[in-house]
Amino acid sequence: MGATGRFALFLGIVLSVWSALHVYAFLRAFSIPALARSMPPAARASVFLVLCLTYPAGRLLARWAPGRVAWTVEAAGAVWMGVLFLAVAMFLLADVVTGFGRLWPAAAVPARTAALVATAVLSIVAVVQDARGPRVVKHEVKVPALPGGRKELKVVQLSDLHLGALLGERWLGRRVAEVNALSPDLVVVTGDLVDAEVGPVEPLVPELRKLSAPLGVWGVTGNHEYYAGLERSVAVYEAAGIRVLRDAWSEAAPGLVLAGVDDLTARRQLGLDGRTLDRAFAGVPGGAVVVLLSHSPLLVRDAAARGARLMLSGHTHGGQLWPFVYLSSIAYPFQAGRYDVDGMTLVVSRGTGTWGPPMRLFFRSEIVEVTLRA
């Protein structure tokens, strides 16, 4: 199957799941008699269609007619997406407890009512949590030596900004100021700088160019760069002064090597060549401290075996909305935080921005600061 066929299959699956989630949530919500009495069937059908179509319509408007109306529709649809996911999780929990209303029928309505209340509360918490913005998460990693006899070197990581219609210049300006205030020696952007379309991100290049570090600003592509258009996305990185490592390495300073790979998840989805680490590590000088940038936390043990001392990743968002961390961890066992893997330190960012719902449940977004100590 070619790349177009794979994408069509993926899109078909996504739309089918999206529709099924709405059907399940509505059936469960309107099995509550009080709610059913408050809205006649024709009104329910209208609300169903509006909610089901709001997010896709917002994305289309953002692409073809950007502006305040498009932003409002997409933002409303994105919040509804998060509410829907939480509602499905809560209703499913109620169904498990009551045996889908068959083993314990008397408890079915109270359990579903409780699920609806829990959805509302968790949705408010998640919106507030996201509105607080990213926190700075700090790690220290010991290495044999650092360039020029330094005792320490500070690396600041941004990941999964998902810039576009919802996260624009003002939001980005705050993140750039926060990064520069940390006085990093090195800044890395580990993919998904772009969300769905490159067009809304291109005007943000002047703001991105304000990122500053003595040893430079470096980056790798994420899966969304592939979806939005790889070459045009890479051009945005380069215009912003971000040096993109595409299955390659470079010395940020003598003895400190940055290696980077194009996104492993997108390559797998699109059936592209997977021997990416072979090229990224080819010819790396012996004795150098190697930091690997990989958007997806995959091939982790392979990276450690090739001599990487630190691997910086993102992609998972730490699940972003509980309980989806459990689904994400099936494909990505290294989900969020710090791991020690065969002598290599892996740090997986929860993401600086958000994808889809502007919501975070239980964990805030992150700017990661890693201090390398000799």
Give a written overview of the molecule.
The protein is an alpha/beta fold. Helix content is 45%, strand content 18%. It has helices spanning 3-29, 33-38, 41-64, 68-98, 108-131, 169-181, 205-208, 223-228, 230-239, 264-269, 276-281, 300-305, 325-331, and strands at 135-142, 152-158, 186-190, 217-220, 243-244, 248-253, 256-261, 289-294, 308-313, 337-341, 344-348, 366-373. α1 packs antiparallel against α3 (41-64) and α4 runs antiparallel to α5 (108-131). The radius of gyration is 22 Å and the shape is elongated. The model has no long low-confidence stretch (mean pLDDT 93).
Give short descriptive properties of this protein:
45% helix, alpha/beta, 13 helices, Purple Acid Phosphatase, chain A, domain 2, single chain, six-stranded mixed beta sheet, 12 strands, 374 residues
Mean pLDDT: 93
**How many beta-strand elements?**
12
Name of the CATH first level of the largest domain: Alpha Beta
Placed side by side, the strands forming the largest sheet appear as 1-12-2-3-4-5
- Distance from first to last alpha carbon: 49 Å
CATH topology of the largest domain: Purple Acid Phosphatase, chain A, domain 2
Largest sheet: 6 strands, mixed
C-alpha geometry: elongated
Q: What is the total number of structural domains?
A: 2
* Helical stretch tally: 13
Helix content: 40-55%
Which H/E pattern describes the elements?
HHHHHEEHEHEHHEEEHHEHEHEEE
Q: Which regions contain 5 or more consecutive residues with pLDDT less than 50?
A: none
Which percent band covers the strand fraction? 15-25%
Assign the CATH superfamily of the largest domain.
Metallo-dependent phosphatases
Class by helix and strand content?
alpha/beta
Radius of gyration: 22 Å
CATH architecture of the largest domain: 4-Layer Sandwich
